[in-house]
Amino acid sequence: MKSLFVLFLSILVCSKNILAQTIIVKDPTIEQMVKEISPDSLRNYIQTMVNYGTRNTLSTQTETKRGIGAARLYVLSKFKQFAAQSNGRMTAIIDTTTLQADKRRVDTTLLLGNVVATLKGTNAADNRVFIISGHLDNMRTNVMDRLGDAPGANDDASGVAAVMECARIMSKRNFGATIIFMAVSGEEQGLLGSTYMAVKSKKENLNIEAVLNNDIMGSNNSNETNNINNTQVRIFSEGLPFYELDKNAKNIRQFGLENDGKSRQLARYVKEIGERYVDNLEIKLIYRNDRFLRGGDHTPFVENGFTAVRITEMNENYTRQHQNVRVENGIQYGDLIEFIDFEYLRKNTGMNLSTLANLANAPATPEDVKIDVKKLSNNSYLYWTKPKIGTVKGYYLLMRETTNAFWQKKIFTTATEITVPYSKDNYFFALQSVNADGNESLPVVPGVGR
What we know:
Number of domains: 2
Shape: globular
Mean pLDDT: 94
Strand content: 15-25%
Helix content: 25-40%
Structural class: alpha/beta
Distance between the termini: 62 Å
Number of helices: 10
CATH superfamily of the largest domain: Zn peptidases
Largest sheet: 8 strands, mixed
Low-confidence stretches: 1-20
Order of helices and strands: HHHHEEEHEHEEHHEHEEEHEEEEEEE
CATH topology of the largest domain: Aminopeptidase
């Protein structure tokens, strides 16, 4: 009798666990693209960039086998090679601007060049743009040293390699929205290339919905603490918006939205989609725009009103960043290719690719999203209008408690309004559009409706 009771209890527990499981639905096209990411390709890109000796922004632009000029031409040639398989949808250029000496990190008139490949969306009515970036330049211990060798394998050939691999794979496919692949210069001299691109994009009114900046993302271990980990990666995102904070501060304070800016919503989105498609990878949200004493190429974009995040490895090793190659006290210094974990870089590239693909094929965000506050109620009523771009299967209402970092519930509806038995005082809400393939838009936090 006791054995029967134990058997019944075991079946009951197993049944509850089965019923509690979350079914993850993957877009098979995105799943296939992630499988196509090649560690060998990533290694080849990085090795070629390392072979140029130095990629300092101030280095030679006339030699064919050394310096930033040769490295730019290499990336451009690869982008054009990938463009040949895009049925004319991808184009690639070196976007240049002339900078004068600033007497800090630029000591001469400089022709700055960013390598940019644009994969046009197939929907002519869709003007959304999604950007993935890494920085091509590197540095030795002295940022003004334009002559000495600096491998720059991880900082930031790893990020550029991820951009190139995404371009290789995605150029063969169709996406409704436009994707831009960028290898920028001048990061180490003060975010020069990304600042030029962000200011230019703002002047041209580009509808940039998301920027994924990849910087130092291929090594799995830290100095000092000696942590070794290739299953976690960090995403940095700003909390209070730098851009027009004064205009938005009252609403942010009144409704407790300090943790719900657009860049933070993008970071949550990358975590959900990246972990959906890449096994054995945990994406850690870091609630800072960037690390202490450091800067990244996403910052000029957020400062110009765009949504942008920084992706960086979990455990940085400072014996390899901005260091002349040498052995000192038995420690190997320098950003050498042998310190890259290519399986880790493959996973981090997959996180980028799956996020970009999901965004570029998703419908646009729902419009005029409001939460009704005209009366006291323990229910919450939200309403919205359908997006102008994309075919919508329905919408996800996202919910989380005010103390929770991540969305806890996703409720599907085909209507353009919903009432849920949860108090608006106790929960945060957001809304996503979703199509028949399960591609979700970025979340939209509701405004106040009456």
